[in-house]
Each structure stands twice: as structure tokens, then as C-alpha cells.
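hiii so my PI (J.) wants the whole complex modelled not just the main chain, which honestly fair. so below is everything: two entries, each one labled with what it is. i double checked the lines twice but i was tired so who knows lol
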Amino acid sequence: MVEETPWQQALRYANRANPYPFYEELRKTPVARQPDGTYVVSTYREIVALLHDPRVSSDPRKCPVAAGTEDLGEPAAEPIREALTEPNIITCDPPEHDRDRRTMMPHFVGPPQAPHLISDLEPDIRRLVDGLLDDMKGKTRIDAVDDFAYPLPVTVICKVLGVPLEDEPRFHHWIETALDALDFGPEAASEEIRSRQAGARQAVQDFGQFAAELLDRYADQPGPGMLSALVNEDGPEGRMSKGVLASNALLLIFAGHETTVNLIAHSVLTLLRHPDALEKLRRRPELIVPGVEELLRFESSVQFWHTRSALEDIDIAGTTIPKGAPIFLAYGSANRDPERFTDPDELDLERRDNQHLGFSQGIHFCFGAPLARLEVQVAVGEFVRRVQNPRLVEDPPPYRHNQIFRGPRHVLVDIDGIRD
Amino acid sequence: MTWRATVEELVREFRASGRIVIVGASLAGLRAAETLREEGFTGSLTIIGDEPYEPYDRPPLSKQVLKGWVPADHTKLPRMREVDADWRLGVAAIGLDRAAKQVRLADGEQVPYDRLLIATGTRARQWPNPDEAALDGVHTIRSRDDAEQLQKELAEPPSRVLVIGAGFIGSEVASVCRELDIPVTVVERGSAPLVGALGGVIGEIAAQMQRDHGVDLRCGLGVSSLEGDAAGHVRRARLSDGSTVDADVVVASLGSIRNVEWLEGSGLAAGFWGVGCDAGGRAFDINGVVTDSIFVAGDVARAPHVLYEYQFLAMEHWDNAVLGAEAAAHNMVNLEPNYRPHLLLPGFWSGQFGVNIKSVGVPPFGDEIVFTQGSVEERHFAAAYGHRGRIVAAVTFDHGKWLEYYGKLIEQSGPFPPPPPGWDQPPDVKPMPAEFPDPRVPTAIPDVVLTGHAPSERTAEFRPRHR
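here's the output for the full assembly
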């Protein structure tokens, strides 16, 4: 048996709750070639350099060998990519990327066309969060994932995009099924993961079908939300094709809540593990803004990204990433890089100069960041203010299977009550 | 008692009870004051400003304020922390007596200092003929009052605006006029807009952009005179080719003048290009000897820059004001070896005609340019400037997210032309002359000894030390 690299160890399910010691080991080789030919980049400086390097592609179609295919050894499963034939904004390069992102931007983040689009959602978000906390009244034990972290983002993204909320159970199931088969680690070859793959492929196809039908409906009968607008309105650079739009719709439905669920769940978990920080936030609610940034750094919502590859030989950190090599950027590791962040394993809600990679950087900087920030600020701020004496029941809690969107499946919390 | 103990004692004592005076109550002055307090300076702090206002932000003045989106008095700079200063606003400093360590104010008062920060910035160059400059409707734009007055007149609206000079400010004003649907004529002495800052190749693109937006752009021409009506309001301009332009608002955007006159006789290296200082903001005297008690920051400072052959660079950039002020303030309350350099890679941005223009490095230092990414036709592109085979600057039109990449290449003295991108490559990637105008005005920039960056050797690396 060949000894596993720190990266492979970081990806093992058993280490899901705490991959950080392996990241620390990994950072000793900032750009590390893996046995399957992938290059894993784990240090802040190098990741930022590559995020801004136009010789790095985000388009899997340009990568001659997809990350972790059979040819290179360990198979990694990625049904989400396989099922989508059209690119979305995170799986394509400029100029397509720029054009599609520019087309979508005014319908979402707004400025300069609609600068209040996100901030106007705040009352709704506040109402939703209040409702969720009100529902906890009388309970002594809650699940911070199912009862709190999940319902908020999914409701908000459905509203923003114009996806009927009644369809939520269907796509929730598809997403869960797809994510459970997503594995980049040594366990990808296991019987269990392999058996999940067929189901996952089907789930993504069904999900795609669902998006296409929704777009068709909006083409017939315009409705509220961003998707309808994109189907029906011409931007200055024309309209996106149906396929590209469907692919981006999937991306937005998925990314619009999946990452935020994990961030809220991790924020609650992290604060319960750091009672001093929680108490500080309770006393000084204004710290929620820098606090959420720190929570994003501390438990990055997206631990790494995997669709990048080198289009030329790239010399970096004493290594040459050869043309054609898949590149994994380990955000979760960069955010704990002591070369960039003082005492990176300390939670400091008042951390200065906190330019974490929780939303990445460069042209693929998280499209939904402004919405995610607002949701998490309201949710975590209200949780801290209203929940009385919260105590973690199980530490570490059970984690979801996939490594990219790493997050706890449940966070059980005992509480004394809910303040008004 | 050792020497070290003595030095530490000195620093401690100065921080506790020293007297610091900042001349200039703008961005640099304010950020310096905040940094001084941040660093534990508890002595007396005086901030002198000739305008009656608390420090305000200038970039919005030629954009949001002129459009009428933001009132001019809503541009006050946010306070990052309490500065607890004695604010002397509305009174100019008119003299510096280094022997007595005093700043002389216009109201006759003398303000003593132990350490002084010069942050007097620049002012707009006025229309040279004073009678014509005094006509109603003739403007410059630099201060809050300027912007407020001009905004009012644009709101009327005028039948035509004449902008003299197509640098960044002139171009931004022209852009605002078009957005407000006001006819505008731009007269530029050079071959194209932005030519001084970005060269003729980019200037041509900027010219096309202006014309596409309906600007009546006239290059290679000057304005010979301005004519007013009987009521003393400007009505017409006569151009150097004998033609005339009827306009009832004229904006003279003729660049800036450094506010150094008050330093005359002080013995400091102050002149046309600003106040010379080292990379730590310590002012030089006229002999090039560094002073211990006088510091400079912001637009008025000029310091040798390691990346540009140690030429003295003066930068009228927002982040230069902030970071220069922070470095100078730090050094004002520390001693060697705890001095901090201010080694900024210059950068600026401008918004005009719906395009976000950003630049990094010093474009006029380059003599060649190459388009590296995107499409010139669609005006989403990046271009790099080169000098002797190394990249020295880059400019982007609606492509700002790539600046970081070019910035890193510049810091590492990367090759020119830079490595080709893997995608989004423009059809023609051949370097061409960047077409900067010959500097006609003799400058005070001294030639300095080359101490690195030979074309054959690209090993030098620029690494500003962070806190």
C-alpha cells in the first residue's frame, strides 16, 4: 500500500470534520503534484496568483485529462459535470464567461443598474429568520441545519430566481443525491460511491430537465424573478442560449443555497465551540459584519475548486505546472495559511485585513457573495441574540459526504429558550 | 544606560507628549492623523487646512456629484477612528520656519511643532487669463465648492459645455455631460484624450469612445481666448485654428499645481514637481539631505521608486495618499530600524462613458504597448506597457479584475511582452510604440543611477513590507 499524500488524507471522510492538520502538512509543498497528475495548490500567495493568471482555464472542456480520470489512477466521481453539456459561468473562460456574467449581473447584484436589489431583500430575510426562530419556541433541542440553516437560503434563492418553492423537496433530493456521489478522495473508488454515481447522474439530469421546463414556462408566460427576466429580456449583448441559461440556472439554484447552508451551520457550530466569541458577538452585535468574514475564513464554504487547468506551463513556487495539468485550488487551506493570516487557527471576529478566499478572487469571484453575506449576517446575528444558552450536543457533528461543499449534516443544539 | 534604552525612551516620550502638526486637511492628512493615534501617539495633534471643510473624498466630485446623484457636502470622509486633533480649518499655512520649528498661518499665528507632516496636495491649474477665468460659467474642478457650483450649472442645463483639456478629469466631465444629455465640446492640445497618462494608442481608443458618445472632440487644438457677454457670463471660445465654439459653461481641466509656495525659503527640496522625500516620507532639504522632523505624504510628495530606476515619482492617486500617509505617520513616531517604506505600485481608476478604466504601474515609463486580453472593439481589454523588455505598467478597460495579475508581473520585473494568456487573446499581440508625447516642459526629475533591472537581468523583486 502506497502511503497517502496529505491531500488524499484531507479528503478522507474520516477527516471531514477537521481537515486542517492535513492542510498544514500540505502547505509545506505549496504546489504539490498528486499521484493522479493533479496539482494541488494550498498556500494563499500561490492560489491568489493562479486565480489571477490568464493561463489558467476554468473550462473542463479545455483540460485534456479531467481531474482524476481512470487514466491517471484514482478515479474521482463528478456526475454534476458529466450531466451538463453546456457551460455555466464557473466552467467557462472569457470572453464567454465575461459576456454571460455581464448578462446575468444586472438581474442579480444590480449595481449600477439596480443598486438596491440585494439590500431590499433584507426585510424578507429578517422575517424568515424571525419565523424560524419563533418556531423553535418551546423546544429544548434543535437541529441548526434542518431547523435553521437550510430553510432560509433555499427560500431566498427561490424568490430571487423565481423558482416555485413547492418544487424545493424535488431539487433538494436531486442535489443531495448528486453531492453524495461527489468524491475527490481515495474513497471515490469504493463500491459505495460507485453505486451512488448512477443515481447521481440521473438526479442531475432530472434537475436539468426541471430547469429547462421552468425556463420554457417562463418563455410562454413571464413571471417574477431573475430566470424569467433572462429568458425574456434582451441585454445589451443579446440573450443567452436556452442551454447556457439552463446550466446557469442549475448553478444558481445549487450555489445559491448549498454554500450558504453550510456557512450558517458552520457559523453556529464555530461560535458554540468558541463561547468567548459568541459572548462578544452578543454584547457587540455590530461585530457581525467582520464576524461573518472571519467565519467565512475559518470554515470556508467551498474548501477547494477543481475545474481549473493549465493552458501553458506555469512556473510557480519553484514548480512547473505543466500545460494540460488539472489544478485544484485549496481555499480551505489558504484561509488558514499562517504566511497570510496571523494565528490562522484562532477565531478573531475583529480580524483586520481579512481578505479570505471564502468567496474566491478574480473573475470567478462568487456571484452571490452580496446575498450570502446579508443572509448569514442576519441569520447568525439573530441566532446569537435570540437563542438562550445554546449548547452543542455532539462534537464533531456528522458531516456530509462531499469535500468541496463541506458542511455538517446536522448540528444538534440544546437550548433554554428563544428570546423575543 | 545603553544607547538602545535611550532611544527607546526617546520614542516613548515623544509618543506621549510630542507635538505633531499636519498641514493639509484632506485624505492624506486625515489618514495620517488616524494612524498616529493608532500607533499610540497621545501628544498634541494640530491639523491645518485652508478649506473650511472637514476632510472629504475627491473621486466622487467629478462623477457622482456632477451627475447630481450625491450632494457635494455628502462626500465627507469616514473616520476610521477618533483623532482628537486641534482642527484649524479655513486658514492656510503660508510659511515654514525650520529653525524655530514653526508653521506660519495666514491669520498671523505661529504653530510650533516637533514633527511636521506636509500634505498640502495640489490645486487645479486655473485658466491662465485672469479676466477670462473670472467670467461666470468658467470652472475648474478640484474642490467640493467647485463641484457643487458646476453641478448646479449643469442641472440648468447649459446649451453647450466646453471642456478644455482631455485628461482624466476633463474626460470624466465630458462623460457626465453626455450622460445628462448636454452637448459638449472637448478641446485637447495633444493628439487624443488621456494621451499623457496612457499614450497615443490608448488615446485613440478613448477618442473613439468619446465620439461614439456624441462628444464634439477636437484634438491638436488649443483655446486662444474666452469671450463673455455684457453680464460677464462666458458665451464663446476662440480656438487656435480660428474657429469658435459657443458654450455657456467652460471647464478648464488643465492639470494641477502642487501646493508648495508656502515652503519657499524653508530650505526644503520643494518645487514644481512637489516636495522631495525618501521612500519613508522624510523630506529632503535642498541639498538632498534627509530631515528628521519633516515628513511628506499624498499628491505633494515625490519619492524615489525602486521599480522605476529610482526616479522620483509623484502620484496623484487615492491609494498613494492613504498608504503614503500611513507610512509617513508610522515613521513620525518611530525611529530606525523601525521605519517603514512606502513602496506602492501606482494605480488609478476612472469611470467614463460607461467604461471602467484602471491602470497599474507607471504607463509613461513604458515606450511600447501590447494588447494582451479581450477585445479593443468591444472595449473590454487589457494592455501592457513595456520598457527595455520588462513590463512596467498595464491598463484595462472594463477588465479590472486582471490588474492584480499584471501588478504581480510588474513587481517581479516580468518580461515584456508578458506571457500570452491561454484564452481571450486579441488577434494582434504585437508590441507597438505606446506613443507618449515628448515631455516638452523641462522637468525637475533628476536622472538617477541605475541600480538594477538591467534588461538582461530580471531578478529584482519588489516586495513592499506590510505591517
